Model the fold of this input.
Amino acid sequence: MGSDGAAPAAALFESVFLDIRGSRILHDVTWSISRGEKWVVLGLNGSGKTSLLRLLSGFGYPSRGIMTVFGQTYGRADLRMLRKKIGWVHGDLAVDFPRFMNCREVVESGGEGSIALYEELGRKATRKADEALEAIGAQHLARRLFASLSTGERQRVLIARALAAGPDLLLLDEPCLGLDPLAREEFLRSLASVFAARPDLTVIAVTHHVEEIIEGYEQVLLLDGGRVVAQGARRDVLEGSAIAGVYGARCRIEQRDGRYPMRFAGE
Done:
């Protein structure tokens, strides 16, 4: 607890910079994420979105500035312990699992912090895996080989894997990448169910597609060239002037049934 009795923020960036091989990736990022908030990090390709998630995941350090996650300051915290509180779902993860593993085994592996499983873990692990699969609408996939799944099915299973480990923070890197429009909408409905069931779970998702921002996301951080150009309530950011500065003056965003489809003048 802080001095005012409030719980510490889930994550806090104070003037954070990130340099990689002489290139500046993130510029002076200041950002506070409260526990239980659902954020979208929005921006064009190359704006620093995935680099921001990598820092939050505990697999990178800022070059300058102060960064804390669940009250643990980077540079002083044991990041191996901190990572146990964080579920990170990204596309590269899908190719790492042995082809003999079924989906339940993939989900169970998350609780073990490993990729491959060569022995049964017992009824408790199986129950947790099945509950996580059910939460994301994928329980029917439990016995299917993970390698046989479609892209959308794999994404659901990977999120179930992260949830089964009981994280306090869930990081989603382009979770709809590679999904056709129908699969995307089915996936987003399942994700909304997870948000409703876990109001305590802090979620940060990266995308450059505004139409993927469902109602469960309350906050938006807008990046441009590694700089934060807007942050705050979803409606304020998506209907504000900064969007045109990133996507161009022809960009138009209209609220429709709780979603924000993007159009461009002349379409």
Notes: The chain has a mean pLDDT of 88. The first strand starts at residue 11 and ends at 20. The chain has one domain: 11-264. Helices lie at 49-57, 79-82, 103-112, 123-135, 151-164, 181-197, 234-238, 242-247.
